[in-house]
Design goal:
Number of domains: 1
CATH class: Mainly Alpha
CATH topology: hpI Integrase, Chain A
Structural class: mainly alpha
CATH architecture: Orthogonal Bundle
Helix content: 40-55%
CATH superfamily: Intergrase catalytic core
Shape: globular
Order of helices and strands: HHHHEEEHEEHHHH
Number of helices: 9
Number of strands: 5
Largest sheet: 3 strands, antiparallel
Distance between the termini: 59 Å
């Protein structure tokens, strides 16, 4: 047990050398594009196509909607409406920011490149999924699990995906998708209020923790940034 004097010393050390919060590296557009292209090359090989399609959909939905790992893991096919070239709507029965458990409907449009809508449609078509969890495990023989991926498995899964795309992945986590989108949106002219409404942040401090002002991302081949819901 620490004596009062020892506790006071440690308190002084913490005051002089405060711990810096650990934050995941935001996933930039250039990096995302590099990985998606690598996965597209994998998809040309029949034995690797299923895993490649899942991983493309996971990255692109997670990025463009700024989804948390638990939200990605809980997505259900029955709660999603997607139309190629138009957009996608996701229904989340519950989420961290939904304190009244009212559920959330999240929309994003189809894009000319790095499109989350087409990636989702490609995945469920390749997997033959008509109901149940969207994102599932795939064993070494290419067999699809009936149960969803566990949210805790998404960090090693995502790092493995990035490594397959030639990206050193140790600094990345599932929060990298959320941070990457927030930084991209800020660099492309989104104001904080619009960003908070789109991602679902209620607290300004929470939102600011995800924005990396030092990062610089290029635009996409599309007509401006993704439209906000209702526009």
């Amino acid at each position: 047990m620490r004596t009062p004097l020892v506790r006071q010393v440690f308190k002084g050390i913490r005051a002089l050398h405060p711990a810096q919060p650990r934050q995941a590296t935001p996933l930039g557009i250039d990096t995302l594009q590099q990985v998606i292209q690598a996965l597209e090359a994998e998809a040309e090989q029949p034995v690797r196509r299923l895993r490649a399609r899942r991983d493309q959909a996971l990255l692109l939905l997670g990025f463009w909607r700024g989804l948390r790992s638990d939200e990605l893991a809980r997505l259900q096919v029955e709660h999603i409406r997607a139309q190629a070239g138009v957009g996608i709507e996701l229904y989340l029965p519950r989420s961290k920011g939904d304190r009244q458990n009212l559920g959330s409907r999240l929309r994003t449009p189809a894009l000319n490149s790095l499109c989350p809508v087409q990636a989702y449609l490609n995945w469920i078509t390749a997997a033959g999924i008509a109901k149940g969890p969207v994102f599932r495990g795939i064993d070494r023989w290419g067999r699809l699990a009936e149960t969803p991926l566990h949210s805790n498995s998404l960090i090693p899964l995502m790092r493995g995906i990035l490594e397959r795309g030639g990206v050193p992945a140790a600094a990345y986590s599932s929060h990298s998708l959320r941070r990457g989108f927030a930084t991209w949106a800020t660099a492309n002219g989104w104001d904080l209020k619009s960003l908070m409404a789109y991602v679902g942040w209620k607290d300004v401090k929470s939102a600011l923790r995800y924005i990396d002002p030092a990062a610089s991302f290029g635009g996409l081949a599309q007509d401006g940034p993704p439209a906000l819901p209702g526009q």
